[in-house]
Amino acid sequence: MAATVEDGGPVPSSGSAPETMRRSVGVGAVVVIAASSTAATTSIGIGLGLMAGVVGLHLPAIMLLAFLPVLGIACGYGRLNRVEPDAGSSYRWVGRVLSPWLGFLTGWVNILTTIVFMAYTTTVTGSALVQLAGKAGLHALPGVLLDPDSSVQCTLIGMLVLLAATVVAVRGLDLAAALQKYLLIFEYAVLIAFCGYGLVAGDQPFSLSWYNPFEIPSLSALAQGMVLAVFCYWGFESVFSVGEEVHDPKDATRGGFRSLLLMLGLFLFAGTAFQRVLPLDELADNGATGLAYFADRLAHQPLAALPLVALTCSAAASLQASVIPTARGALAMGRDGTLGRVWTRLHPRHRTPSTATWLITGIALALATLSLVIPTVTELISATVNAIGIVVALYYALVAIASAVRFRHLLRENLAEALKAVVAPLLGGAVLLLVGGYLAWTFYDSTDHFELAADNGWFELSVPALMIGSGVLAAAWSRWGRRSPYFASGASGASGASGASGASSTPAADPA
To answer: From start to end residue, where is composition biased (Low complexity) (predicted)?
Structure first.
């Protein structure tokens, strides 16, 4: 038997050590990856107006309120990463502490939701590029009239962006993070400049009530706003999937928390600026084009086009930031034999999971292509994007419970650490389960019949059910078809807590 981790659980030896990835990034690059994954500029540009239609002039309040349970979840992620950095992150931790079946489902839905999100964002990115071309006076290419409402044009252009992002991701985290850093610098410079000017130039009277969650119109508005706001923070956990590739595993934890604080600051700043410039009716009526409308109120062309450029950069960066953690999650599942060994192949030079990266991209491209010719696929993608909140709430809560169970001994030994590793994750997980449960109930209660339409509640509710159901079937195949040792003896029995990651032959102790 290998050395034991601090929680007292033995970690069986996994035999020969697997190939390891290259440790190539530090805490700064990790912050960049997390910030790109959460895509704050995209959330601000599209999401604030939608939230305003729900909570009124309380955007800062709902963003601050939603931050609290997400912070509690992040505490659980950070503590687990300290003792067991692994490309599988939540898949590994939930499987080892709670149940291999729950762990597999966590990894499975992570992969599915991100692939669908990538297929959706591919079209969004293409549309932003076509709109940007129109602002620059380019309305046609040889033989083609550019149309931002053309699904075919936007999807094909977005596919080219995704392919380019995948090439960079295969090259290595250092290059991917460097590229994303410059995109983020430009995005945030534009965002901060316009929002800062909006705070000064806006003619809507400022009110401290904007920050008071108790003045949100109703409990229903509060719950719906929380669903949308939590979705804006979704993606911060991507940093923990690269724990094997940072110089120090603690850098992933530091990067995750710093990115969350950065997101909070940007959301509060932008929410206040939007409400200083736009009356509530204009803010709510221009949800999907909120950032562009906000910029048009503050500046003339060509300056007013800069936020659209920033939005395009944000969408492109989020495509790359999505494929990186998803490929590493699939790599971890392949190492355990729950997925095929093809997912475990590393690039001979760059030591990245190149095969998994290209496979994930290929599936996303295929799904985006199908959506062009099969209307049901388009509806499925839209419904999945709308229903992601339920799945996110579920796997966040599972990680929170895993953290609380694994570190429960701290309740007797170190109360301060127990608050961060047990209490905060449990409270955060409970809130998100309530939010996810409320969202599921609203889907169920919104109609009395099933219809293949993105706005049909029963159809939207069927999407997370389908994702979870497919995960159960895939888990059964891995358990009895592939005979994966992951299910025979838990996640630790498959390849070891840290042995699988290549991080260390001896799992790290968890200091109290």
So the answer is: 490-505
Inside any domain, residue 203: yes
Structure tokens at 508: 């790290």
SS3 assignment for 55-111: HCCCHHHHHHHHHHHHHHHHHHHHHHHHHCCCCCCHHHHHHHHCCHHHHHHHHHHHH
- Residues 10 and 489: their CA atoms lie apart, in Å, by 11
Does a structural domain hold residue 471?
A: no
CA proximity to 458, closest of 364, 386, 373, 406: 386
Q: Which two tokens stand for residue 363?
A: 């599936």
Check if the beta carbon of residue 432 is closer than 8 Å to that of residue 397.
Answer: yes
CA nearest neighbour of 230 among 57, 420, 469, 38: 38
Task: Give every CB contact of residue 137 below 8 A, 6+ residues apart in sequence.
Answer: none
* Spatial distance between the Cα atoms of 224 and 425, rounded to a whole number of angstroms: 22
Residue 388 lies in a domain: no
Q: What is the pTM of this model?
A: 0.81
CA distance 155 to 143: 18
Of 203, 330, 195, nearest in space to 268 by CA? 195
How far is it, in rounded angstroms, from Cα 227 to Cα 386? 10
Gap between the Cα atoms of 355 and 357, Å rounded: 5
Place of tokens 């997980």: 429
pLDDT tens, residue by residue, 156-189: 888 999 999 888 888 876 777 777 788 888 888 9
Q: What type of residue sits at position 284?
A: A
Q: How far is residue 192's CA from residue 474's CA, in Å, rounded to a whole number? A: 45
CB-based contacts of 168: which residues, under 8 Å, 6+ apart?
Answer: 175, 176, 179, 320
- Alpha-carbon distance of 494 to 508, in angstroms, equals 18
7-43 pLDDT, tens per residue?
433 333 333 344 565 565 566 777 777 777 777 787 8
Q: What are phi and psi of 246, to 5 degrees?
A: -95, 155
Q: How many domains does the chain fold into?
A: 1
Signed CA dihedral, 342, 347, 351, 355: sign only: negative
> What CA–CA distance (Å, rounded) separates 239 from 257?
10
Domain that holds residue 208: 27-360
Identify the CATH number of the domain in which residue 183 sits.
1.20.1740.10
Place of tokens 């002039």: 57
Answer whether residue 242 is part of any domain: yes
User: CA 467 to CA 385: how far, in whole Å?
Assistant: 12
Report the alpha-carbon distance of residue 140 to residue 319 in Å, rounded.
26
Q: Kindly state the average pLDDT of the residues 88-107.
A: 90
Q: Which residues have C-beta within 8 Å of that of residue 26, sequence separation ≥ 6?
A: 246, 247, 248, 251
Q: Report whether 20 contacts 244 (CB < 8 A).
A: yes
Rounded to the nearest 5°, which phi and psi values hold at 423? -70, -50
